[in-house]
Amino acid sequence: MLISNTITSHQNQENNMLSNRVQDALNEQIKMEGSSSNFYLSMAVWAEENGYAGVSQFLYKHSDEERFHMLKLVKYINERDGKVIIPAFDQPKSSFESVKQLFEELYKHEVSVTQSIGELVGICLEEKDFTTQNFLQWYVSEQLEEEALAKTVLDKIKLMADDKSAWYHFDRDIAGLTATSIADTGGAQ
């Protein structure tokens, strides 16, 4: 009986561990999420320096959210007995021509994060790591929301064009702006 329990315990320990490939990919995603947090933070500082209090508040909040995404990955790797590598981050861009350009770059960045999450899910499927693949579904849904939000902001910016009154209201209202993706509505619109 003792030998049987030892073998079962050893098998469970092996089943809880991440493959090196999945662990490396998760650590790369940690870097992506941390870089995203810094990118949002840099944009928030620029917005605040240029008098866009609402935009800066919106971006500071999203910087915190991206850091939370990073920490969630860190905790997951630790729970799976993996090795977390906290990376150095490149300095993000800190100067923008306009709020429009800032949000265009934000949208492109979110698309790249979505691609990164998709590649990570693909690696998990190839490695038959269904536990991690399941864990990552939260990120898949989150990215749908992030892209929808960035697209909503860009659509509002296009509608405003050069209307200074509209820009005033936009800056005032953006701090509370959220968007729901089609995934959140169960497909109903």
Describe the fold and architecture.
With about 190 residues, this protein is mostly helical. It has one domain (about 15-85, about 100-180): Up-down Bundle (Ferritin), CATH 1.20.1260.10. About 75% of the residues lie in helices and about 0% in strands. The chain contains 6 helices and no strands. The protein has helices at about 1-15, 20-50, 55-80, 100-125, 130-160, 165-175. The model is unreliable at about 1-15 (pLDDT under 50).
Helix/strand order, N-terminal first: HHHHHH
| Total count of domains | 1
Largest sheet: none
CATH homologous superfamily (4th level) name: Ferritin, core subunit, four-helix bundle
Features:
189 residues; mainly alpha; Ferritin; 6 helices; elongated
